[in-house]
């Protein structure tokens, strides 16, 4: 795809009008319109600003990087969503009693409908093996509810302890289940449920090499 097409696609993915984008850049709407029609092109500094505003990279906007090149079947599963850079805001240990630190660990690509509703967390520990390993990235959708059987990021305890586990409802109890049989389930019930907070649902994980 050409720069005008990629710019238009990324802008629409952010649900942003030409006027709104122009305002953030400090240029006229007509300038943005000319870029998207191919009548003119922004300078390199402006391309970098565009990439930052649209949560992507200058290379992607310029057509120099295509995350879909390695897998043509992704369109079947993810539709026409644009790859966006998702912040890695911290780490979560795949074991009980670890804090989910909201720190800046950079960004990673993901193909999602609403990038602002997602974040990545780095998994630490082995309680979710063999499916999820230490150092994997977990893509998390921000939400405060989970369905029975979902894999979630949960904050438990007054000190904000975070854990990545399978969420199960058993009667009046909530069970946080590890995949690794060497670890025990955590059963939360009664007043303890008031100290359990859902940070989001894990929608996918990927290994970092």
TrEMBL record:
Q: Tell whether DNA-binding is among the UniProt keywords.
A: yes
Q: Which UniProt keywords apply?
A: DNA-binding, Transcription, Transcription regulation
**CDD domains per record:** HTH_XRE, S24_LexA-like
Q: Which SUPFAM superfamilies match?
A: lambda repressor-like DNA-binding domains, LexA/Signal peptidase
This protein's superkingdom? Bacteria
Fetch the Gene3D superfamilies from UniProt. lambda repressor-like DNA-binding domains, Umud Fragment, subunit A
Residue ranges constituting the HTH cro/C1-type domain according to the UniProt record? 7-61
* The keyword Endoplasmic reticulum is assigned to this record: no
Where does the chain cross the membrane?
Answer: none
Q: What PANTHER family does this protein map onto? A: FELS-1 PROPHAGE TRANSCRIPTIONAL REGULATOR (PTHR40661:SF3), PTHR40661
Q: What is this protein called?
A: XRE family transcriptional regulator
